[in-house]
Each structure stands twice: as structure tokens, then as C-alpha cells.
């Protein structure tokens, strides 16, 4: 049986995705990763209406398909969903 997970991520590009470490004692806890599993996951509203403008980052969609019988990832894809400017425009359009 296959299961698919779709989540939004924020990042500078596909290889610099926003992650947070709540136990970071030396700074804000924000860092960037090339591994989507380590990145912060958002729903649409969190990513587009709140996160993109606040963080100044683009919005990416991450799709993972997992085979529950074989216990492995069979498909993984990440792509740009909204640039920061498109996310800000989407937020403005939604507010109307």
C-alpha cells in the first residue's frame, strides 16, 4: 500500500530549507538544511500567509510517497510552489 505526504517548506532554494532547533543555546535556532526531513513543515496558510513574508523565503512543496509494505520511500520530489513575491501577492489577494 502506498501513502503520499504533501507539505510546504520555506527556503532560499531546494538545498537551503528552513529548519529550527529549539535547543540551540547560541542563537535563534534557525538554520538551513538540504534534507527536507530536517526542515520545518507547514500547511498552506502557515507557509503562504504567515511564513514566507515573515522569513523572507520562498515556498516549496515536498511530496513523498511511501510504500507501507516494503517500508521505503518510493518517490520524493520537491519543487518551488511560490516565490516570496508570489506568496505576498497571494496573501493580498486572499485578504480582499
Overview of the structural elements:
- 25% of the residues lie in helices and 44% in strands.
- It has 96 residues and is of the alpha+beta class.
- The protein is built from two helices and five strands; from the N terminus they run E-E-E-H-E-E-H.
SSE layout:
Elements (H helix, E strand, L loop, with lengths): L1 E12 L2 E5 L9 E4 L10 H12 L2 E10 L4 E11 L1 H12 L1
Antiparallel strand pairs: 1-2, 1-4, 2-3, 4-5
Helix pairs in contact: 1-2
Keywords:
96 residues; alpha+beta; 2 helices; single chain; globular
**Structure summary, number of beta strands:** 5
Instruction: Let me know the average pLDDT.
Output: 92
What would the principal axes of the Cα set say about the shape?
globular
The biggest beta sheet reads: 5 strands, antiparallel
Strand neighbour order, sheet with most strands:
3-2-1-4-5
Rg over CA atoms, rounded to whole Å, is: 15 Å
Q: Unreliable runs, pLDDT <50, ≥5 residues? A: none
Task: Provide the succession of SSEs.
Answer: EEEHEEH
Question: What share of the residues lie within helices?
Answer: 25-40%
How would you classify the helix and strand content by structural class? alpha+beta
Our estimate of the beta-strand percent is 35-45%
Cα(first) to Cα(last) distance is: 42 Å
Number of helices: 2
Amino acid at each position: 500500500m502506498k501513502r503520499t505526504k504533501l507539505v510546504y517548506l520555506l527556503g532560499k532554494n531546494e538545498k537551503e530549507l528552513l529548519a529550527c532547533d529549539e535547543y540551540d543555546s547560541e542563537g535563534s535556532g534557525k538554520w538551513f538544511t538540504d534534507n527536507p526531513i530536517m526542515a520545518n513543515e507547514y500547511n498552506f496558510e502557515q507557509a503562504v500567509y504567515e511564513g514566507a513574508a515573515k522569513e523572507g523565503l520562498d515556498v516549496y512543496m515536498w511530496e513523498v510517497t511511501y510504500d507501507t509494505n516494503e517500508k521505503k520511500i518510493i518517490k520524493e520530489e520537491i519543487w518551488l510552489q511560490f516565490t516570496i513575491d508570489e506568496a505576498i501577492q497571494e496573501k493580498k489577494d486572499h485578504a480582499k
